[in-house]
Design a protein that fits this description.
The protein is an alpha/beta fold. The chain has one domain (8-220): Rossmann fold. Helix content is 40%, strand content 19%. The chain has 11 helices and 8 strands. It has helices at 8-19, 25-36, 51-61, 74-86, 101-108, 119-122, 128-133, 136-139, 152-155, 169-172, 188-198, and strands at 40-45, 66-70, 91-94, 114-117, 142-147, 179-183, 205-210, 215-220. Strands 3-4-2-5-6-1-7-8 form an 8-stranded mixed β-sheet. The longest helix is centred in the middle third of the chain and has 13 residues, at 74-86. The radius of gyration is 16 Å and the shape is globular. Belongs to the helicase family. RecQ subfamily. Keywords: DNA-binding, Hydrolase, Isomerase. Residues 32-204 form the Helicase ATP-binding domain. It holds the Pfam family DEAD.
Length: 221
């Protein structure tokens, strides 16, 4: 049975304490969906609307958990680490330069609660992430895996082949881990293809679509 998620007032208060920012309603809904721990999430929010902040809110409420964020650009990982460290959340960006065995030992030992990486590192066959994700003790600590700029999964898949390999994650992981796909620029065709590739479950899905004038939330299951 999924753990009871805190109410929106508690989420907002924790966010204020941790990040010194006030959460928008849709960010609270993203956090609430993640903390249910039994559903995948689609988040469509425009550039500058606070999508990245929404990624980190669950860590303010579940500070023993781990989030993995896959991003297409290493620079985005470095920016996130700087932001999270200021909030007191131990974080690491794993790139070709930092993918050392020592760093992965620290990740496995839960020294970091936010891990930002690229598809090339995450999906490297027989790589350190694959070994890590197959570890049931580590996987049980995962709050979720977030795919930032998720439209790149289909638009960049032809020249970054690891994007096309992401469907293997469901077979690598020894237990159910929620996925969140996030972007400002989903098309309906891209969203359909991404859901198929990642085996996103229709029966347990929360979709949050944020526009400049409204928030639309759809729950299934």
């Amino acid at each position: 049975m999924p753990a009871e998620a805190p109410n929106f007032s508690a989420i907002r208060e924790k966010l204020q304490d941790c990040f010194s920012k006030r959460a928008c309603l849709w960010q609270l809904k993203v956090t609430d969906a993640f903390l249910q721990n039994d559903r995948d999430i689609i988040c469509m929010a425009g550039t500058g609307m606070g999508k990245t902040l929404a990624f980190w809110l669950p860590l303010a409420l579940k500070n023993t958990g781990v989030l993995i964020v896959m991003t297409p650009l290493n620079q985005l990982g470095k920016q996130s680490v700087n932001f999270l460290e200021k909030a007191g959340i131990p974080s690491i960006s794993i790139s070709a330069e930092t993918a050392s065995r020592a760093n992965f030992r620290d990740i496995e030992d839960l020294h970091y609660h936010a891990i930002i990486t690229s598809p090339e590192q995450l999906m490297k066959p027989g790589g350190e992430f694959e070994k890590l994700l197959q570890n049931i003790d580590f996987a049980s600590k995962l709050i979720g895996i977030i795919f930032d700029e998720a439209h790149c999964i289909v638009t960049w898949g032809d020249f970054r082949s690891e994007y096309k390999d992401l469907g293997r994650l469901h077979y690598i992981l020894p237990c159910q881990v929620p996925f969140m796909i996030a972007s400002a620029t989903f098309t309906s065709d891209a969203l359909r293809d991404i859901r198929r590739l990642l085996h996103i479950r229709s029966e347990k899905l929360t979709t949050i679509h944020v526009s400049t004038d409204r928030v639309k939330t759809v729950h299934k299951g």
